[in-house]
Amino acid sequence: MKLILSLLIAATMLNAGEWKQLFNGKNLDGWKMVGPGRFVVENGVMKTEGGMGLLYYTREKFGNCRIRVVFKTASDHSNSGVFIRLPEEPPDPWYAVHNGYEVQIEASGDDWHATGSIYSLAKVIARPQKPAGEWNVLEIELDGPITRSYLNGVKVMEFDPSKPVPPRKRWYEPVRGPRPDYGYIGLQNHDARSTVYFKEVSVKPLEK
Predict the structure, then answer these.
(1) Domains and CATH numbers, the chain
(2) 3-state helix, strand, coil in the chain (%, to 5)
(3) Whether the predicted pLDDT of 8 surpasses 90
(4) Are 142 and 206 in contact (CB under 8 A)?
(5) pLDDT tens column, 99-114
(6) For every residue of 71-119, which 3-state class applies, written as one string?
(7) Hey, which of 3, 12, 88, 174 has its CA 20 to 30 A from 109?
(8) Can you say whether residue 35 is alpha, beta or left, with left for phi > 0 and alpha for psi between -120 and 50 degrees?
């Protein structure tokens, strides 16, 4: 009995440390699109078309976890983002902008709007993005209210919402204010000139 119990505990711990794939490589089961444009699946990869829209994962809210997104861009100016901490299912893309946080994807942005930043709220401290056409690994860590991002193994941003942030300057910048520890996540299709490809979106519990 003790042996069986030990094996069950070990199996549970193993499963808890594994990556859960949210994109099955075949279709958009479990995902929902709001707003203009769309995501299509070609050769096992999600591709953005048009926008500004949002594709979000409907089956679960996430917090205290690591989110791994494997992406590549068609050009250095290709624009997208990973939305986190959405308190409710978004009725439109702008809900995500003003009620969650956008972890930016764009090689050509300034430090407040570059890949791995929280758009206009937390700037990057490194810019290790690979050239257009090459795959990048973006990992986002949700640690209670703290958000960290890592790009290709390099820590690029840490955001503590209890600390001061820059004032809101443009109408399209996110409304300042707290976000929940747990929420829905989504991917942005920004505009018709931006093409971004995603071959993996996965999540695993945060290891302390």
Answers:
(1) 20-205 (2.60.120.560)
(2) 10, 40, 50
(3) no
(4) yes
(5) 999 999 999 999 999 9
(6) EEECCCCCCEEEEEEECCCCCCHHHHHHHCEEEEECCCCCCCCCCCCEC
(7) 88
(8) left
